[in-house]
Amino acid sequence: MYIGEMNAIFCSSLLFDLDGVLIDSTPAVERVWRRWALSHGFDPQKVVHMAHGRPSRITIRELLPEAADIDRENREVERMEIEDLEGVVLLPGARQLLESIPSERWTIATSCTRALAEVRLRAAGLKVPKTMITASDVSIGKPDPEPYLKAAERLGFAAADCVVVEDAPAGVLAGKAAGARVIALTTTMIRSQLEAVGADWVVRSCADITVDGDVEHLLRLRLSV
User: How many domains does the structure of the chain reveal?
Assistant: First the structure.
């Protein structure tokens, strides 16, 4: 379980979102959703904002509630995202942080489908964790807690004993609803938006998170805030 102590955070494992936390796919995501929005007569800026941090089919269903084939629309968005990898890169501190954590003590819970998540991880030069949870593995996406509950379970821990690392309000809400504490990054949203949905700590990027020891089977995290 986790214990707060001075500037340290103790937890059993870390559960990471993918886009906006470990990798930056923002240019590709925005290009795809802008194209999709324009093809359906929607405001591209509004659609891009709605889509961030949530499974694509949820955004599509909200915008096209009367659509006959949500699955077809979702497959088309996924196809465009898989094909557009230009500018997909690692975010500051991501590789160093992951390399400092035992492989069995961290995983990813992402709103991407498994196919898209794997493509983006490889494009950014990261390995695909065996325990990763994607939109393909859950029935309800973020902000529902299911992705983080399943991610913690895959690692063999209770979500309440884990710390979630997120960048989007939907993801922060999912982590909190799962019972975890949440470190939010300002890679995508401003601090006030992340604090408003309950983030326990807010830092700039993974470069501000250090895992500097394993104390009584717990990871010890320190934040540069």
Answer: 2
Both 198 and 157 in a single domain? Answer: yes
How do residues 17-59 score in pLDDT, each as one tens digit?
Answer: 999 999 999 899 899 999 999 999 999 999 998 887 778 888 9
Are 53 and 121 found together in one domain? no
Which residues belong to the active site?
17, 19
Domain of residue 147, residue span: 4-25+88-223
Beta bridge partners of residue 14, listed in sequence order: 106, 163
Mean pLDDT, the chain, whole residue set:
92
Query: Is 184 in the same domain as 117?
Result: yes
| pTM of the predicted protein model | 0.87
